[in-house]
Amino acid sequence: MPALSDHAALSREFPGWALWLSGTGRWWASRKVELTAADVAAGCVPFLHADSPEGLAEQLRAQEVLGSRHPVTG
Fold first, then answer.
1. What is the pTM of this model?
2. 43 pairs with which residues across the strands?
């Protein structure tokens, strides 16, 4: 089943995100950590959605770049 292998591949590539395929066939991602004000100002968002796993992966990669400019310190 392609959706399961797509989900597994995305989960491995983006461990900081919870991923799922909705009943409507859309792919969703939710951050596992809360965004900081700096993250939001940089354009980071808590949720993403796309029509395909490839589309979601593209958005996730863009978000990872934005987030890497403002590393979370703890």
1. 0.84
2. none
